[in-house]
Design goal:
The complex is a heterodimer of chains A (124) and B (297).
Chain A lengths: L1 H25 L5 E3 L2 E7 L6 E5 L12 E2 L4 E6 L4 E9 L3 E3 L6 E4 L5 E7 L5
Antiparallel strand pairs in A: 1-2, 2-5, 3-6, 4-5, 6-7, 6-9, 8-9
Chain B lengths: L1 H5 L4 H23 L11 H13 L4 H16 L5 H12 L4 H25 L5 H16 L4 H10 L8 H16 L4 H13 L4 H13 L1 H6 L4 H10 L3 H4 L53
Helix pairs in contact in B: 3-4, 4-5, 4-6, 5-6, 6-7, 7-9, 8-9, 8-10, 9-10, 9-11, 10-13
The chains are: A alpha+beta (124), B mainly alpha (297).
Chain lengths: 124, 297
């Protein structure tokens, strides 16, 4: 009985770890500041292209294209000036997607929510 | 025209008439075929063409874009910042929004920029348009988000007569208040918090971050685990912003916040884009006493 129970616990643990790993691969990530700029990440396994359209690029759907890596993960690192910037992702050039993760959100006035990324000025 | 005056049309006159008519048609055709000259002072001809193309590709018309750009011109003629307006127009057109909807938003933006400009001029009468710009834009954003002119005036008054109510600090406190209101927390209490922070000399960036920190913990505030009055009291005691939400230790304004919020579906939190001090340390959990091992059955 004790061995059975231990085996069941082990199985549960394995399943749990696998699920956690799976979740971590598909988890949305809010923009992060890196030494090279702000990193934007978007997960979409079936997208042919993903663009970052934002207040800092005049909402262009072609100027900031994300690069695809494994597991449907798309990312771009772009330098941004200090301030508050709003953004969305554009899938395949036509589907506007509110960021699944962001520091904050604001209504865009057109029925969707823009993500907000705040770049703080360097401490003096 | 002699053929008309003489009442007869001979062969030569007819040919002349046809030649003139053909020339007129050619000129008119060329005029129509030429790219339209930009009607906007604030957007370059090339930019306008791109915006028009974007609109036409979606089945719209060029004059819809011109109407929107005229709103930006109107703002420029009043020495108001135009960048937020052109950005909103670009955003709306890029997202395929109805031009009438874009126009309504832009008109409201222009109105709020005008009010903000007046408020900032009251605070800094001698400041140039360039110097006023950031404060005007931030204050207009706050008005867009539901902060009232009376609230801005109250925040201005909080600075007292010592000159600490600078345009950027008042605008930032208004922005902080707009974030508190966006979290659907008490406006009057939020106003008191921001006014106290202005009085205590919080910097412009700290005032915005204060509002953002409160919004981030909106669930705690709404559930009663934290209170705006406690935050205000902590600020009045002299707590600096980095200490307000740092931990749940004695003397802090709130208990530690629940990290996830209903409105923010992300699992991972941004560590870096947020200023480093805003990231709270993980609460230290007391070590559990060792559980005695159960003997196997």
């Amino acid at each position: 009985m004790g061995r059975t129970r231990r085996a069941a616990l082990l199985c549960a643990a394995v399943v749990g770890v696998s699920l956690a790993a799976c979740v971590s691969r598909t988890t949305a990530t809010a923009p992060q500041v890196t030494p090279a700029g702000v990193r934007f990440v978007f997960i979409h396994s079936s997208a042919g292209s993903v663009a970052l359209a934002a207040s800092f690029n005049q909402w262009s759907t072609v100027s900031h294209m994300l690069a695809r890596s494994a597991n449907g993960r798309w990312s771009i690192v772009t330098p941004l000036p200090p301030g508050e910037h709003t953004f969305m992702f554009v899938v395949d050039g036509r589907q506007w997607v509110s960021p699944p993760a962001a520091e904050d959100y604001v209504d865009d006035g057109f029925g969707a929510r823009n993500g907000v990324v705040v770049v703080r000025p360097p401490e003096r | 025209m002699e053929w008309w005056l003489s009442g007869r049309l001979n062969g030569e006159s007819a040919r002349r008439l046809i030649r003139r008519a053909a020339a007129l048609v050619l000129v008119a055709g060329a005029a129509l075929a030429m790219p339209p000259v930009s009607t906007s002072q604030v957007v370059s001809a090339a930019d306008r063409e791109a915006l028009v193309r974007q609109r036409v590709d979606r089945g719209g018309r060029a004059d819809e874009v011109d109407l929107l750009l005229r709103r930006a011109d109107e703002a420029a003629s009043q020495a108001l910042p135009v960048e937020p307006i052109t950005n909103k127009i670009r955003e709306g057109l890029a997202k395929g929004a109805d031009p009438q909807r874009i126009d309504a938003i832009v008109r409201q933006m222009v109105a709020n920029l005008r009010v903000s400009d007046g408020l900032v001029r009251e605070l800094a009468p001698s400041a140039s348009a360039t110097d006023r710009r950031a404060a005007v834009v931030l204050m207009a954003e706050s008005l867009d988000a539901g902060v009232t002119v009376d609230e801005v005036r109250e925040l201005t008054g909080a600075g007292g007569a010592d000159g600490s109510a600078t345009p950027d600090r008042v605008a930032s406190s208004a922005k902080g208040l707009s974030l508190i209101k966006a979290a659907r927390l008490s406006g009057p209490d939020g106003r008191q918090v921001m006014a106290e922070a202005v009085r205590r000399g919080y910097r412009a960036t700290e005032l915005v971050d204060l509002g953002r920190d409160i919004k981030r913990r909106e669930l705690d505030f709404r559930s009663g685990r934290a209170s705006l009055r406690a935050v205000r009291a902590a600020i009045a005691r002299g707590d600096r912003p980095e200490r307000l939400f740092r931990d749940a230790g004695e003397g802090t304004a709130t208990r530690p916040a629940a990290r996830p919020e209903a409105t923010r579906p992300e699992v991972e939190r941004p560590a870096a884009p947020v200023r480093p001090e805003a990231v709270r340390p993980e609460p230290v959990r007391p070590e559990r006493p060792a559980v005695p091992e159960r003997p196997g059955r």
